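Q: Got a minute? One more chain.
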Amino acid sequence: MLDILTGFAACCRAFDLRVSTGEVIDAARHLGLVNPADPVEFRLVLRANFVKSRRDQARFDYIFDLFFNRVEKNEENIPDSGAERIVDLLDQELRQRPDHDSTDQDPMDHALVDFLDNDPLSLIHQLHRMHTMEEPAQRFFKSNMGQLSSKLSIMLQINALRSRIETLVDQTHQGRDSASLKRMFMNRLDRALDLATREPEEINDLKEQATVTAPSNDLVSDKPLANLTPLEVNQMEAVVERLVRKLKDRASRRFAVKNRGAIDIKKTLRNSGKFQGVPLDIVFRNKPPRKSSILAICDVSGSVWSGARFMLTLLYSLHECFFRVKSFVFVADLVEVTDLFDSLPINHAIDRALEDATINRNLPTDYGSMLQAFRQSHMNDLNQKTTLIILGDGRSNFLNPQANILAQMREHCRRIIWLTPEHARTWTTGDCEIMTYKAHCHEVRTIMNLSHLMDFIKELVV
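A: Always. Here it is, folded:
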C-alpha cells in the first residue's frame, strides 16, 4: 500500500499538486482506520490528506481517476502476458532506434509506452511541462507555436502508436483476445490524448461577483467610455477630479479617527477602583490600521485606448487614497509610472504615462510577456498585504497567456482583482483570455463607464 501511495504522490507532484512526505505517512496511517477496499472511503482519505484548498480538488480528482482506474484488462479477463508482451515489444523497438542514446530523443515516446503499462508518472510530468511551457522572449515576431506544435506532435505520436499496436496485436494474437487487447490499448491512448488536449482547471469560487448594470445614455456617468464626445470627456474629467478629492478626504478622515477595538476589561476594572468599582472610564484596546498596499498594472494598447485614460485616472485615485501604491503600464513591455503619479497633477501625469517614449505601441499586446517581465523584476513587490489590480481587456493576440505565472502571483499576494472594459458576454470571443485568467483571480469586474469606476473605488477605499 505504501508503494501505491508514494507512486500516487509522485504523480500529484508532477502535476503541480504539492504533497509532502508527512502527508503520505498520515494518509497511510488513516487508511488503517477505514476499509481501503471501499473506493469512497479510500478517495476521501487521500483527498483529506493531499488537497489543501478547494481550488485543488478538480486537479486531485483528475489525477486520482487517471492513476487508479486500471479496469480495462481485468474486466475483460485479458491475460497479463498478452498486454505485457505488446508493451515489451514497443519498448524494445524504442531501444533499438538509432537515436536511443542521443540526448535529442523525444522522451514522450517512452512516456506513452509507460502509460500503456499502467505507469502514468512520466506522461503526467511531460504533459504538465507542456501545459506550463513559457514562450521565449521575442522582440519583433511573436507566436504561440511552441505549445501548439508540442500538442500537435503528441497527437501525431499517439496516432502512430495506435497503428503500431494494431499491427503488433494482429501479429501476436488472434480471435477474442486480439479485439480485447486493441480495445484496452485504444482506451488508454484516448485517455492520454485527453490529457494532452485538456488540462483541468482549478475550482475558483470568486469572493465577490460584481453585477454590472446596463449602461444608460441619459447621464454622462452612465455612458460607455468609448462613446464619449470630446465635450463629455472634459465633463468627465471634472467629475473624476471631484471624486478623487472626495475619496481622499474620506480616506484621510478614516485613518485620522482612532480605530478602536474591543473593550479592555482588565484596564477598565483597574481604573474603576478610584470610583468604588463603578467603571466611569471605559478603556478600549487600540487596533492599529491594517497596512495594505496596492500594485496596479494597466493595459494602454489600442484595443482599450478609449478607456485607457479613465483607467489611468483610477490608478491616480488609488495613489491619492492609499499610502503605498505601485503602478505599471504596458503594451508588451512593462513600464513603471509610480513616480509620475506621485509627483504630478492628474492630467499631467496621465498625459506623460500615455506618451511615454519607452512604450513601443507598434508591438502586439502580449499579456504573457508582461507577466514574464513582472515575475522577473517585480515579484518581490508582492506580499500577503498586497492587492494586485490588473486593468485590461485580456486580448493577447492569440499569444501564450502564461496563466501559470498569474497563479504564482496569486500565491504571493492577498488578492487579485481584474478590471476589464468589456462586458462578460465578450470574454469568450476572439483572442480574449479573461476566462483563462479568471481561474486565478479573486474578483473579475467590468468597468464600462464612470459609475462603475466610482462604485469600485468607493468599495476599495471604504
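A: The beta strands are 260-263, 284-286, 293-299, 325-330, 334-336, 386-391, 415-420, 443-446.
Q: Perfect, thanks.
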